[in-house]
């Protein structure tokens, strides 16, 4: 059962922004983070079509397992000095607004990894 579930696991995540801020331990405020527009993982058949494969059936036990990983709009950034300090927001709504403004100002960020798209077939 576990093999069947893990082998057919499907994952889809959109609009993720993880950010770390430091305005206490460094001499000047800074922020770094990861932005991910879209992440998809799926099980595929031999012709690379998304498909559920029942690994408990005898004819599927030794069948090769194919996975597809797609990453769109992934970037890693570093923003020194005049970083938006989200941690000082008074409430979640204000923090969400500041995070959104941070994404809109993405052109001004110092990228460690510029926005990129990647696909893997395994």
- Assign the structural class, choosing from mainly alpha, mainly beta, alpha/beta, alpha+beta, or little secondary structure: alpha+beta
- Count the E strands: 4
How would you describe the oligomerization state of the chains in this entry? single chain
Element string (H = helix, E = strand) = HEEEHE
For the terminal residues, how far apart are their CA atoms?
22 Å
Share in β-strands: 35-45%
Radius of gyration: 20 Å
Count helical runs. 2
Overall, the morphology is: elongated
Write down the overall mean pLDDT: 78
Largest sheet: 4 strands, antiparallel
Provide the helix percentage.
10-25%
| Uncertain runs | none
Please list the strands of the largest sheet in the order they lie side by side. 1-2-3-4
What does this structure look like?
The protein has 122 residues and is an alpha+beta fold. It contains 2 helices and 4 strands, in the order αβββαβ. A 4-stranded antiparallel sheet has the order 1-2-3-4, with no helix packed on it. β1 (11-22) and β2 (30-44) form a beta hairpin. The protein is elongated, with a radius of gyration of 20 Å. The two termini are 22 Å apart. The model has no long low-confidence stretch (mean pLDDT 78).
